[in-house]
């Protein structure tokens, strides 16, 4: 679910296919969160005529939702996931490096 921001749409489709995920988070060479891309983003780009060679960062959401690492990040992630109606949210440190990803399934399982 975490890939380099410079991979092509074609490579991104392969990642999504093998990981069975709806969203992937992009990072730069420092490992910092730079964006996110969903299956829908790829479909819309292809419908609009984008080449499979286009870099993922060129069609990604460059202002992704995230939560900061804390003792309450699971509760914050739950709030973010539900209020934004999304399936996953990255947890980042103070330099925006992804520490983990919390999914809607993680939140549901934590409530049991």
Provide structural commentary.
- With 112 residues, the chain is of the alpha/beta class.
- The chain has a single domain (2-110), classed as CBS-domain, CATH 3.10.580.
- 35% of the residues lie in helices and 24% in strands.
- It contains four helices and six strands.
- A three-stranded mixed beta sheet has the order 1-2-3. A three-stranded mixed beta sheet has the order 4-5-6.
- The protein is globular and about 40 Å long.
- The mean pLDDT is 92.
- Subunit arrangement of the protein: single chain
CATH first level: which class? Alpha Beta
Query: Which stretches of 5+ consecutive residues score pLDDT under 50?
Result: none
CATH architecture: Roll
Helical content band: 25-40%
Main β-sheet description? 3 strands, mixed
> Percent of residues in beta strands?
15-25%
CATH domain fold name: CBS-domain
Number of strands: 6
Indicate the structural class: alpha/beta
Query: How many domains comprise the coordinates?
Result: 1
The first-to-last residue Cα distance is: 25 Å
Features:
single chain, 112 residues, alpha/beta, CBS-domain, three-stranded mixed sheet, 6 strands, 35% helix, 24% strand, globular
Chart the SSEs and their pairings.
Blueprint lengths: L1 E3 L4 H11 L3 E5 L5 E6 H9 L19 E2 L4 H12 L3 E5 L5 E6 H7 L2
Parallel strand pairs: 1-2, 4-5
Antiparallel strand pairs: 2-3, 5-6
Would you summarize the structure shown here?
With 112 residues, this protein is α/β, with parallel strands linked by helices. It is 35% helix and 24% strand.
